[in-house]
Design a protein that fits this description.
The complex is a heteropentamer of chains A (294), B (257), C (326), D (362) and E (236).
Chain A: H1 2-30, H2 37-54, H3 59-82, H4 95-115, H5 125-128, E1 130-133, E2 136-139, H6 140-162, H7 164-174, H8 176-181, H9 186-212, H10 219-234, H11 239-259, H12 265-279
Antiparallel strand pairs in A: 1-2
Chain D: E1 19-27, H1 34-54, E2 57-65, H2 70-81, E3 86-90, H3 95-108, E4 112-114, E5 129-131, H4 136-151, E6 155-161, H5 165-181, E7 184-191, H6 199-208, E8 212-216, H7 219-232, E9 238-240, H8 247-253, E10 260-264, H9 273-286, H10 292-311, H11 316-325, E11 329-331, E12 334-338, E13 344-345, E14 349-354, E15 357-360
Parallel strand pairs in D: 1-2, 1-3, 3-4, 4-5, 6-7, 6-8, 8-9, 9-10
Antiparallel strand pairs in D: 10-14, 11-12, 12-13, 14-15
Chain E: E1 2-8, E2 10-11, E3 14-15, E4 20-24, E5 29-34, H1 40-48, E6 55-60, E7 63-64, H2 70-76, E8 78-81, H3 93-100, H4 109-119, H5 121-125, H6 136-148, E9 154-158, H7 166-181, E10 185-189, H8 193-199, E11 202-207, E12 210-216, H9 217-222, H10 224-229
Helix pairs in contact in E: 3-6
The chains are: A mainly alpha (294), B alpha/beta (257), C mainly alpha (326), D alpha/beta (362), E alpha/beta (236).
Bound molecules: adenosine-5'-triphosphate (ATP) (2 copies), leucine and magnesium ion (MG) (2 copies).
One adenosine-5'-triphosphate (ATP) sits between chains B (12-13, 15, 17, 35, 37-43, 84) and E (133-138).
Keywords (chain E): Amino-acid transport, ATP-binding, Nucleotide-binding, Transport
Organism (chain E): Peribacillus cavernae
Family (chain E): Belongs to the ABC transporter superfamily.
Chain lengths: 294, 257, 326, 362, 236
């Protein structure tokens, strides 16, 4: 039981973490909460279904198509919902929040229109591969999800902290103007970031589709909300924090169900963040901003 | 004695920004706080106004211990500051900025603000008149309805001073008020600070503009690496070899440049 | 006669607009001190449930229920507002959004009192109660040629309109006072405000609580206008919708919040004829408006322009940046 | 497919005794539950066409979207009610919406009939409120009894969506019935709308080894629950409510759907020619199989037509009285009558899924 | 090497530059003087590509560079130390320096970083401190050091001495001279008019967005208009 629940929790947590990484990346660079990330993720999941079930192509093609489509969506998001707001005078920090909410509403309704309202099954023989360990069934997909989330986290950490491009990205995050006079092509960096984040959402979408066999136009919302909770939990723009936050949330949701009252499952994410924020207002791994009384 | 700084130490992580600094400032003085970059001057201001607490040490203001008191209460007691990096309420007009400065000297709450009894109207009128007067003092009265972020740099610095004075401070803390000003503007600033002093306000000023400091201050403390290096009148400081070596440099250095 | 001019459908929409305006103002008030709170939906729920339960179980008059609902929401506002002081920006936004979610889950799970997801029905309806009152007084709406629902909704609308006028007046005046200046100062630079002697704890909690009271008040009205509430009414979507009202209309000035609430309530109704596409259009409108007017439809410049156009000295609404002219 | 305003009324001339009537429809057409609203309006339109062709009554439908939200449902109902020519309302889709719209319609004296609202207490809202959908309180016990008998059930586990009025009231019925039947409840689990991971709940259920799982869920969630349960190795049967009864369950869950029991008035394999004709027509018109909601809507419009015929005129009060009188009307769901409250009187049948197909469970 | 002709720059509708023309010769130090709000910073930002001029032309080494992005200009060899020390406060001192060499791919970067840290020893001491927690003056040094690391052909300095201690001001001017001697051309904006003119070869004086005086630095030092307006009565 315990072991089984642990596996459930880690699987869920890893998924949350991958989604949160996408949020964190965009927040880290643009200081914007991309409210449409959940919907982009949902589109990734639908691409998986279309490619494997409708077109009957192999699974790897599904990943490629999902990455391509979500990357394009990411580009369009940047082009039409974020770029017009950048560098304009008098733009309140709320504007990008609202325009990405607009994108999320639009995407949800488009997918509703294209794919219909209900759940779509993700049928794939790969999703059926499992091992029997004692009385416990472990699915290969679960292991893959965990591994991918770890790989993505490490790759992102390394990229941000050690590579030149990563540093340029952090510089852009902090101050667009400064980064540009240091020679960073900020426009390119921003597009790149949004595209990478979106593609990560696309990957997560397929993984979720395979793991839970349920894909619908609304799935972006609840996953998106969890993702938001996690980046706050871990500290905005912090890669390790996203991973840790994802696992904490996945495990605690699972254990609330296993040993507590499943009715409170949806609240647990926010109860945890409220508690953590009171102790560490900047999140578990977040840093306090410098320069107080100058 | 207006302000007594007793054995202040401040550590940030491993860096000790201030080590055992004591200063006593008398009523009516203009007191200078100078020293190399990173010596801990701004940090001292932050500790006096309790933006953060000292690691050890105490500060008393008119013999009252003010360490640990909330910043807004410190302003209430009569200490007000300006910032090294100008921090005006950028979207407000010049006049409104100064009126905010008078906040702690007025008391209208929500209900009287909304229902406007006589007392509130008189108070509001007084604040406004006072703000206008202060704008005149700093030479900004013609800009009263300009949004403050559209003011030129030097004007913003003067506005910050007006805003601080609006809180009727007994002690005014100025952090590099002359930074970014040319010499003519600096000369105007000198006159302004003198006028403030004439109103009975004690001034503690951080400044790197030596001609200004030497002309303006009655006494000066020099900090270096968080420690007190010297204290004295401008002449004493100017001729103190340790200060020259650490901070002022000699005229010859100047000529090499 | 009269009945022909009064379409309860429009009255109904009008009532929702007026309730939404109060909600938009609730977020505007918290924003005016620089705090982005997405807890409005939660406070709205608290107000709605409190008032509904009191009027259903204790037979209290609706008025008492509504006042109690606003107060309870206000108290919760203080309780949430105090610890939230340590948070700012998005952290605050998401923590308060979380508070709303927690409240919703709480309403769902506290079945013995809230009836869970089934919701509370049989809540006294303001209009119907008023109708009964008039009937008892010997007045029948048909005597002036109105049907029952026309009459009830007309009463509701008039009542809400009066409430709105008062609330707007109140916050416009507050804005122009010492308290309003303190809010604005905190919004622009918290540290500097503190250094100028403003008790930021007090003012931040004050504006947070005012927002909570307004949201609770709107929630209570909502309960007595719909006569039925369930936890789903106070979920994430509501919080986001309220945020959109304020930001879309322009979060800097109170008129923006009012305009936003009005526009965003009417739009889905006006688009009924293309029902399938109307939420797509809603999304597109958000994207485009933000691209063209990121500060919201109504901002300071428009206010200035309006003031010039309407030379009347008593402009109905001014923003935080008041008294441009002495 | 289902546009906003009004679909065409075909009868051109008022010959003889044709009764012309406008009926308002409030349906869930945008948002997560739009699939239900779509099936329902399709059912209405199909029936409308047939009825108008027969010529006795000529019905015009005015369809409004509620997006599944109470305020919108109320606005829509106000819009419809304020049109004096509209004699009755059909819908709204959800019980939550009906709880708001019902009292308003009752107050204004316009008959309203739910075709999919299955929660407790709906027809009791007022004299003018009716429904033709079988309430969960009627359907679920029947299915439970049969399943319990067949599998000799002693221990049950419950799982339900606790943030939705419909699944919650279905659960209440299940719980009541469990107590009546004296079964042991090993655990009660809940889930929330939009959730996609039920593994934690199911793992717990699995550990407690129930003989039967009672699941109050809409088909979207229900199908996924079954799928995940079977993957985990839970093999016991499921009993679900009316929301669970949809061909979509088989579509989503595949062979994992085997072992589901539901009680319903609607069975598509019934050898009644009326039923088969309906299915054929529906499929040619809309390209998919009708579900119970389409069927209930279809019957509902016939009930309205019958009421109008009996009332003899398109008048709200007359129609109400005529509706209340309706007895033993034959429809595709079977023989139909209203009880004294305006609730449906009908015996449901129990279906089970076997080999990927709904079958009558004997 | 730099030739600016008739540039006009706007902030929304406010015209900050009303047709500025100036020229910077290779290997020289040219200084721009002017009161607060005269348009000095705007000129620098326009040259560095942060602002786009509505009218006018900017040429660098004979090539039209009007309207290019800052990163493209840096590639061509124009680096800016902006007013108000735009350091990256959430990155460490060392990372800030690395960012200075962002466009370089040669192997000497590390060595060069060591060298500039010798120029400003405090930076070496605070290598791993977050730049945002440096004192005001330390930040200014970091900003200059960072710009040097991009090895520019033309260095634009906007009030580099602001907020610096007297000794450091002296040092900074010395460094500027050294930079020039090492072959980099410098365009310098200063409030400290006297010091600036002392090291400069040529000077321009701006007023409300226009050039009102220009000439050789020595001549300007003597110019009565300048003495009065910028060197103040009390120039020691
Ligand atoms: N939050 C902090 N964390 C770490 N170190 C800090 C922090 N704040 C200040 N310091 C360090 O404390 C020292 C003193 O800084 P302070 O700002 O007081 O200098 P200052 O004397 O005002 O210098 P300047 O004249 O350049 O403004 C500096 O070395 C600075 O790097
Ligand atoms: N972001 C801005 N928006 C609007 N007006 C601006 C902006 N920045 C500068 N200005 C205006 O443009 C004019 C020129 O400003 P600029 O900053 O170039 O002056 P400066 O010569 O650098 O002054 P200082 O010595 O204070 O740095 C000023 O009148 C200023 O008010
Ligand atoms: C469409 C159906 C699932 C509606 C459900 N029977 C209800 O009463 O809410
Ligand atoms: Mg300092
Ligand atoms: Mg400048």
């Amino acid at each position: 039981m315990l072991l089984e629940q642990l596996i459930n929790g880690i699987t869920l947590g890893s998924i949350y973490a991958i989604i949160a990484l996408g949020f964190t990346l965009v927040f880290g660079v643009l200081g914007i909460i991309n409210m449409a990330h959940g919907e982009i993720f949902m589109f990734g999941a639908f691409m998986g279904i279309i490619v494997t079930s409708t077109l009957k192509w192999p699974l790897w093609a599904a990943f490629l198509v999902a990455i391509a489509v979500t990357a394009i969506l990411g580009y369009m998001l940047e082009r039409f919902a974020l770029r017009p707001l950048r560098g304009k005078q008098g733009v309140s920090h709320l504007a990008p929040l609202i325009s990405t909410i607009g994108v999320s509403i639009l995407l949800e309704n488009i997918s509703h229109h294209l794919f219909g309202a209900g759940n779509h099954p993700f049928r794939n023989s790969f999703a059926e591969i499992n091992f029997q360990i004692g009385s416990i069934t472990v699915y290969l997909v679960q292991i893959i999800i965990f591994v991918i989330s770890i790989i993505l986290m490490m790759a992102l950490s390394y990229w941000l902290l050690r590579t030149k491009a990563g540093k340029a990205l952090r510089a852009t995050a902090e101050n667009l103007e400064t980064a540009s006079i240091l020679g960073v092509n900020t426009k390119k960096i921003i597009i790149l970031t949004v595209i990478i984040a979106s593609a990560m959402g696309g990957i997560a979408g397929i993984l979720v589709g395979m793991a839970f066999n349920s894909v619908n136009p609304q799935m972006g919302l609840s996953m998106g909300l969890k993702g938001l909770a996690i980046i706050i939990l871990g500290g905005m723009g912090n890669v390790k924090g996203a991973m840790a936050g994802g696992l904490i949330l996945g495990l605690s949701e699972t254990f609330v169900v296993a040993y507590g009252d499943s009715g409170y499952r949806d609240a647990i994410a926010f109860i945890i963040i409220i508690i953590i924020l009171l102790v560490r207002p900047q999140g578990i791994f977040g840093q306090k901003s410098a320069a107080e009384g100058r | 004695m207006v302000l007594e700084i007793k054995n202040i130490c401040k550590n940030f992580g491993g860096i000790s920004a201030l080590t055992d600094v004591s200063i006593r400032i008398n009523e009516g003085e203009i007191y200078g706080l100078i020293g190399p970059n990173g010596a801990g001057k701004t940090t001292m201001f932050n500790i006096i106004t309790n933006m953060f607490p000292p690691t050890t040490g105490d500060i008393t203001f008119f013999n009252r211990r003010i360490t640990g008191i909330k910043p807004h209460n410190i302003t209430d007691l009569g200490i007000c500051r300006t910032f090294q990096n100008i921090r005006l309420f950028s979207q407000m007009t010049t006049l409104e900025n100064v009126m905010v400065g008078a906040h702690c000297r007025s008391k209208a709450g929500v209900l009287s603000g909304v229902f406007r009894p006589k007392s509130q109207r008189t108070e509001e009128q007084q604040i406004r008149e006072k703000a206008i007067e202060l704008l005149e003092l700093v030479g900004l009265s013609e800009y009263h309805d300009v949004v403050s972020e559209n003011l030129a740099y030097g004007q913003q610095r003067r506005l910050e001073i007006a805003r601080a004075i609006a809180s009727d401070p007994k002690l005014l803390l100025l952090d590099e008020p002359a930074a970014g000003m040319n010499e003519t503007e600096t000369a105007n600033l000198f006159d302004l600070i003198k006028q403030v002093q004439a109103r009975g306000v004690t001034v503690l000023i951080i400044e790197h503009d030596m001609p200004l400091v030497m002309k303006l201050c009655d006494r000066i403390t020099v900090l270096n690496f968080g420690k007190k290096l010297a204290e004295g009148t401008p002449e004493e400081i100017q001729n103190n070899p340790a200060v020259i070596e650490a901070y002022l440099g000699s005229e010859e250095d100047d000529e090499i440049a | 006669m009269l009945g022909e001019f009064i379409n309860p459908y429009y009255l109904q929409i009008g009532s929702f607009i007026l309730i939404n305006i109060i909600l938009a103002i609730s977020i505007y008030v918290t924003l005016s001190s620089g705090q982005l709170s997405l807890g409005s939906a939660g406070f709205m729920g608290i107000g709605a449930y409190t008032s509904a339960l009191l009027t259903i179980h204790f037979d209290l008059p609706i008025l008492v229920g509504i006042i109690a609902g606003s107060l309870v929401a206000g108290i919760c506002g203080i309780i949430v507002g105090l610890p939230s002081l340590r948070l700012s920006g998005v952290y605050l936004a998401i923590a308060t959004l979380g508070f709303g979610e927690v409240m919703r889950v709480f309403f769902v799970n506290w079945e013995s009192v809230t009836k869970g997801a089934v919701g509370l029905s049989g809540i006294p309806h303001i209009g119907r109660e008023l109708l009964n009152f008039f009937r008892d007084a010997g007045f029948d709406p048909s005597s002036i040629g109105m049907r029952n629902n026309q009459f009830t909704y007309l009463l509701v609308l008039i009542l809400l309109l009066l409430i709105n006028i008062f609330i707007i007046w109140f916050f416009v005046r507050q804005n122009k006072s010492r308290v309003g200046r303190a809010f604005a100062a905190i919004k622009m630079d918290e540290k500097a405000a503190e250094a100028m002697g403003i008790n930021i704890t007090y003012y931040k909690v004050l504006s947070f609580t005012q927002g909570a009271i307004l949201a609770g008040f709107a929630g209570a009205l909502f309960a007595h206008v719909l006569a039925y509430i369930s936890p789903a009414d106070f979920a994430y979507h509501r919080a986001i919708e309220i945020l959109i009202f304020a930001v879309f209309g322009g979060s800097e000035v109170i008129l923006g919040a009012i305009f936003g609430a009005t526009f965003m309530t009417i739009m889905p109704e006006a688009l009924r004829f293309i029902s399938e596409y109307r939420y797509m259009i809603y999304g597109l409108v958000l994207i485009f408006m933000m691209a063209f007017r990121p500060q919201g439809i109504i901002d300071e410049n428009i206010m200035q322009w309006l003031k010039k156009k309407l030379p009347s000295k008593r402009g109905r609404s001014h923003g935080s940046r008041n008294q441009k002219h002495m | 497919a289902c546009g906003g305003n009004s679909s065409q009324s075909s009868g051109e001339g008022d010959k003889g005794g044709t009764i012309n009537a406008k009926i308002g429809v409030i349906s869930y057409l945008t948002g997560p539950g739009a699939a239900y609203g779509e099936a329902i309006t399709n059912g209405f339109k199909l029936a409308q066409k047939e009825i108008n062709e027969k010529g006795k009554v000529n019905i015009e439908l005015v369809i409004e979207d509620s997006a599944g939200k109470q305020e919108q449902a109320l606005s829509a109902s106000q819009k419809l009610m304020s049109d004096d020519e509209i004699v009755a309302l059909l819908g709204p889709t959800l019980s939550t919406e009906m709880n708001v719209v019902g009292p308003e319609a009752d107050l204004n004296g316009i008959p309203i009939m739910g075709t999919s609202t299955t929660a407790e207490g709906i027809p009791q809202i007022g004299e003018y409120v009716f429904r033709n959908s079988i309430p969960e309180a009627l359907a679920i016990p029947v299915a439970m009894e049969k399943a319990v008998k067949k599998y000799d059930v002693k221990k049950v586990a419950l799982i339900y969506g606790n943030d939705d009025v419909f699944t919650k009231s279905g659960f209440d019925t299940m719980k009541e019935e469990v107590e009546k039947m004296d079964l042991e409840v090993v655990t009660t689990q809940t889930f929330q709308k939009g959730q996609s991971d039920y593994n934690a709940q199911l793992t717990k259920i699995k550990g407690l080894n129930p003989d039967l799982i009672l699941a109050s869920a809409l088909y979207n969630e229900g199908a996924v629950i079954m799928d995940q349960a079977r993957k985990m190795g839970i093999t016991v049967p499921f009993v679900g409510g009316n929301g669970f009864n949809s061909p979509e369950v088989i579509n989503i869950a595949g062979k994992a759907a085997d072992g589901l029991f539901v009680a319903t008035p609607w069975f598509s394999e019934k050898e009644d020619p009326k039923v088969q004709e309906f299915i054929k027509k529906y499929e040619t018109e809309y390209g998919k199989k009708p579900d119970q909601f389409a069927a209930q809507a279809y019957d509902a419009l016939y009930i309205m037509a019958e009421g109008l015929k009996n009332a003899g005129e398109a008048d709200r009060d007359a129609l109400r009285d005529a509706l209340a009188e309706i007895k033993d009307l034959e429809g595709i769901l079977g023989s139909f009558s209203f009880d004294k409250d305006g609730d449906v009187e009908m015996d449901p049948i129990v279906l089970t899924i076997k080999d990927g197909k709904f079958q009558i469970f004997e | 090497m730099l030739k600016v002709t008739g540039i006009e720059t706007f902030y929304d509708k406010i015209q900050a530059l009303k047709g500025i023309s100036l020229e910077v010769e290779q290997g020289k130090i040219v200084t721009i003087l002017g009161a607060n709000g005269a348009g000095k910073t705007t000129t620098m930002k326009t040259i560095a590509g942060l602002l786009k001029p509505k009218k006018g032309k900017i040429e660098f080494l004979g090539e039209d560079i009007t309207g290019l992005r800052p990163d493209q200009l840096l590639k061509k060899g124009i680096a800016l130390v902006p007013e108000g020390r735009a350091i990256l406060s959430s990155m460490t001192v060392y990372e800030n320096l690395e960012m200075g060499a962002y466009q370089r791919n040669d192997k000497e970067v590390e060595q060069d970083i060591e060298n500039v840290m010798k120029l400003f020893p405090i930076l070496k001491e605070r290598k791993t401190q977050l730049a945002g927690t440096l004192s005001g003056g330390q930040q200014q040094m970091l900003a200059i050091a960072r710009a040097i690391l991009s090895k520019p052909k033309l260095l634009l300095l906007d009030e580099p001495s602001m907020g610096l201690a007297p000794l450091i001001v002296t040092a900074i001017f010395k460094i500027i001279k050294e930079i020039k001697e090492s072959g980099t051309t410098v365009l310098l904006v200063e409030q400290n008019a006297k010091q600036a003119l002392k090291i400069a070869d040529y000077g321009y004086v701006l007023e409300t967005g226009k050039v009102i005086i220009s000439g050789n630095a020595e001549d300007l030092l003597e110019d009565s208009r300048i003495v009065e307006a910028y060197l103040g009565k009390k120039s020691s």
